[in-house]
Write a structure and sequence with these properties.
single chain; 437 residues; mainly alpha; 3-stranded mixed sheet
Length: 437
């Protein structure tokens, strides 16, 4: 019985607590309902105010958009005008750069070609005169080595005391310098004295005997007539090498037979291997061979060569006058000195031209820097026609229109002033950088 009473007591307590909790909830709901009923008129009034403000802001925005269209168009026209004003300057700068490059290249090429061509011409002349001086000196040395024998004979010719004297064989012809060593080696008769007749030779011998001047070998032209047919015969040389005789130039054609007597069918090989092949080949007509560097193959089968510097200079590249060799040497040496001095001047001018060209290259570099600087100044000066505020407004209008056109439903009107304030700082920085950088 006691147990049952306790359980009943607890159940009654739970019911009492539940009734009190429901009463508290009802009281809270009634309070919230009363507060909401009081707030509704205020909220409805606020909605009306906000709706009116939204309408006003939308009207303001529409006015801004309409005004911006005109300003944007105005600034677009100004920018187009700036571009038009800048375009001629840009073209002039490009033209100036092209002219500088072209003028520099043409000037360099012209000066270099002219100076180098002049140097080449003078160097060739100097080489020719130097060769002539060497030939005359060699000829004079040859005359000295022969002593007074040749001088006495040539004096008799000059005085016309003996008729039919031509002179030393080596002085009566000329050959290219390439074959100087070859003919000086192969033609032992270059020191022979050429005369027309036996009578002239006998008179010369008597002259030398009477004065006790020594002996000389005389080549008598009238005794060489039987060689003319063989001389004029066309020949086919082995491997197409030249005959030494065919390389000799003469002033008087009747002297050619004298050189044929001294040279015959001697041929010139380029080197020792070719010379050996020809000299000991089957065609014995051309068994006498000389190489460019002076190796000599005789018909008898002997060969000579080696030693030090090959002997040359026994025949010149030009036919020398029989007399006046001392005066010719002096004139040639004077000419050589003049050409050498001119060549030195030209080479000095080439050095100066190279230095000037290098300096001009540096100057062109400086000019290019000046052009870049001028281009920036031109751009800066054209921007001066637009004030900073106008420039700022111009850029702002472009951005504002773009923002409003793409996102007008996603931004509140109160965002626009903040956009302008933030964007002003950015564009001001851009303006100053473009103007003063």
């Amino acid at each position: 019985m006691n147990c049952f009473s306790a359980e009943l007591f607890l159940l009654n307590i739970e019911k009492f607590i539940s009734r009190h909790q429901d009463a508290a909830k009802i009281e809270e709901v009634e309070r919230e309902t009363k507060e909401s009923t009081t707030s509704i008129p205020k909220l409805e009034e606020e909605v009306v105010k906000l709706t009116q403000k939204l309408a006003e802001e939308e009207n303001t925005l529409e006015e801004i958009r309409e005004n911006a269209k005109g300003e944007v168009e105005q600034y677009r026209v100004q920018l187009d005008a700036v571009r038009v004003e800048l375009e001629p300057w840009e073209k002039q700068i490009i033209e100036c750069q092209g002219k500088i490059g072209t003028a520099s290249s043409e000037s360099k090429l012209f000066n270099e070609k002219r100076l180098l061509k002049e140097e080449e011409k003078l160097a060739t002349q100097e080489q020719g005169v130097r060769q002539r001086v060497n030939e005359i000196r060699t000829s004079l040395d040859s005359e000295k080595s022969q002593g007074v024998v040749l001088q006495a004979v040539m004096k008799a010719k000059e005085l016309k005391s003996i008729d039919g004297i031509y002179g030393r064989l080596g002085d009566l012809g000329a050959i290219d310098a390439k074959f100087d060593v070859a003919i000086s080696t192969a033609c032992g008769g270059l020191d022979y004295i050429v005369v027309e007749t036996t009578t002239a030779a006998q008179a010369c011998v008597e002259l030398l005997r009477s004065k006790g001047l020594g002996v000389a070998t005389f080549l008598i032209l009238e005794k060489q007539k039987d060689l003319i047919q063989a001389m004029n015969q066309r020949v086919q040389t082995p491997e197409g090498v030249p005959r030494l005789f065919d390389l000799v130039k003469v002033r008087d054609e009747k002297l050619r037979v004298a050189f044929f007597y001294a040279l015959g069918n001697t041929v010139v090989a380029k080197d020792l291997d070719q010379g050996t092949k020809i000299a000991y080949g089957p065609d014995r007509q051309f068994a006498r061979v000389v190489t460019l560097d002076g190796a000599m193959f005789e018909k008898s089968g002997t060969m000579s060569g080696g030693g030090g510097k090959p002997r040359g200079g026994r025949m010149g590249t030009k036919i020398r006058d029989a007399s006046g060799s001392g005066e010719a040497l002096q004139a040639a040496e004077s000419e050589l000195t003049r050409l050498t001095e001119q060549l030195a001047v030209i080479r000095e001018r080439i050095g100066v031209a190279v230095s000037q060209y290098q300096a001009a290259g540096k100057a062109v570099g400086k000019l290019e820097l000046e052009i870049a600087k001028t281009r920036m100044e031109v751009r800066s000066s054209t921007l001066e026609g637009i004030s900073e505020n106008n420039f700022l407004d111009l850029i702002y209008c472009f951005v504002l229109c773009s923002v409003l056109k793409c996102s007008e439903h996603f931004f509140q009107i109160s965002f626009v002033p903040m956009l302008k304030t933030s964007f002003s700082f950015i564009v001001s920085s851009i303006f100053y950088m473009s103007r003063y950088s």
